[in-house]
Amino acid sequence: MKALVFRGPGQSVWEDVPDPGIEEATDAIIRVDAVTICGTDLHILKGDVPEVRPGTVLGHEAVGEVVEVGGDVRTVRPGDRVLVSCITACGRCRFCKESAYGQCRGGGGWILGHLINGTQAEYIRVPHADLSVHALPGALDGKDAVLLADIFPTAYEVGVLNGGVRPGDTVVVVGAGPVGLAAIATAQLYTPQRIVAVDPAPARLEAAKQLGADAVAAAAGEDAEELVADLTEGLGADVAIEAVGVPESFEMCTRMVRPGGHVANVGVHGKPATLHLENLWIKNVTITTGLVDTSSTPTLLRMMAAGRLPASSLVTHTFPLNQMEEAYDVFARAAVTGALKVVLGGQPHDTVAVKATSQGK
Fold it and tell me: Domain Enoyl reductase (ER) spans what residues (predicted)?
């Protein structure tokens, strides 16, 4: 089969690799119908995630069809359409029993495209399939459903829930990439008073407004901090969600949050960020970090099937699976291409891609 293989920092190749097979009785083999690229994949290619060894197939998000299962798999069978979660869960360890699947100690957690071969391939081996794949409602489009593999549960759990968003809050989302936009969409479930989006890219700020942001600001200079101060009479945001993963955006969040507020860090950081405790110690600020657990995925699947999540608007570019390298190039140059979420599989929607590219110019 073909797969995208990590060859070291800055190097990946779409090439022939051996087909996966059942290795444990809890495994499932999935034929990929739709797969996407995550910002974390770009971090891996930059060398920010040293645990990923050369030779690993990248990717941790997919939708596909079950073609084979091990003898102990009970929840899916060959022929089922399924969502492959970015998190694998053994279901037996202490953390899985607490629904903290991201911290699984039984051979799960974030392993796909990280510690074992991932989803950017024609076929995938998924360990612990009973808790790590989810059957899809028949009417749900694969290119929409694939967004529930990572970005929607990440935004919802690590951003909105960890941030403690409540009715009437002022919520600031720093970073209007796919996860930040999903945070804007899911924060609205808790009826905040206002949502402010911060990003340097005009196209992404426009997308944020379309998804429900009440105000937007460029990340450069002090515009964002001044806007939040003006909107809150100098108090600051109740919740600041960091969805970039660079020191500047994290430190901006800590400056914009009010006393007693919450900073929910979602971004994947490759460099140290300064924690200014000389300013924060007196403010009663709560700072949370986290890897998504995907415990909310069944709920989000029901919401998407009911039309309550705006998935399609986040997909700006689609490609056939064999154009993986081209898709990476478009996604990595999002400031130029206007890319939000890139989905591979099936037939490309050229009109969508052209529109998104023109927005980025």
Answer: 8-344
- CA distance readout (Å), 46 to 3, 145, 361: 19, 28, 25
Last residue of a domain, one of 244, 260, 288: 288
Q: What are 342's strand-pairing partners?
A: 317
Identify the domain containing residue 306 by its residue range: 2-150+294-344
Cα gap 106→97, rounded to integer Å: 11
The backbone torsions φ and ψ at residue 112, rounded to the nearest 5 degrees and listed phi first, read -65, 125
Angle, helix 324-332 to helix 39-46, in steps of 10 degrees:
90
User: Burial, 233: exposed, middle or buried (Cβ in 10 Å; 0-12, 13-18, 19+)?
Assistant: exposed
Q: Is 126 a member of any domain?
A: yes
14 and 64 within one domain: yes
310 Cβ neighbours under 8 A, 6+ residues apart? 185, 211
Q: Is residue 255 part of a domain?
A: yes
What is the enclosing helix (H) or strand (E) of 298?
Answer: helix 297-305
Residue 164 sits in the same domain as residue 91: no
What own/partner pairs with CB < 8 Å and gap ≥ 24 does 206-209 have?
Answer: 206/359, 207/176, 207/181, 207/313, 207/314, 207/340, 208/173, 208/176, 208/180, 208/181, 208/184
Residue 328 lies in a domain: yes
- Does the pLDDT value for residue 353 go beyond 60? no
Residues 175 and 243 in one domain: yes
**Beta pairing class for 28-36 and 123-126:** antiparallel
**201 vs 176: CA distance, rounded Å:** 8
| Same domain as 130, residue 21 | yes
Sequence length of the chain is 361
Model-wide pTM > 0.85: yes
116 shares a domain with 19: yes
The pLDDT of residue 230 is 96
Q: What is the pLDDT of residues 105-142, one digit of tens each?
A: 999 999 999 999 999 999 999 999 999 999 998 889 99
Separation CA 30–CA 224 (nearest Å): 44
31 within some domain: yes
**Residues 32, 178: Cα–Cα separation, whole Å:** 22
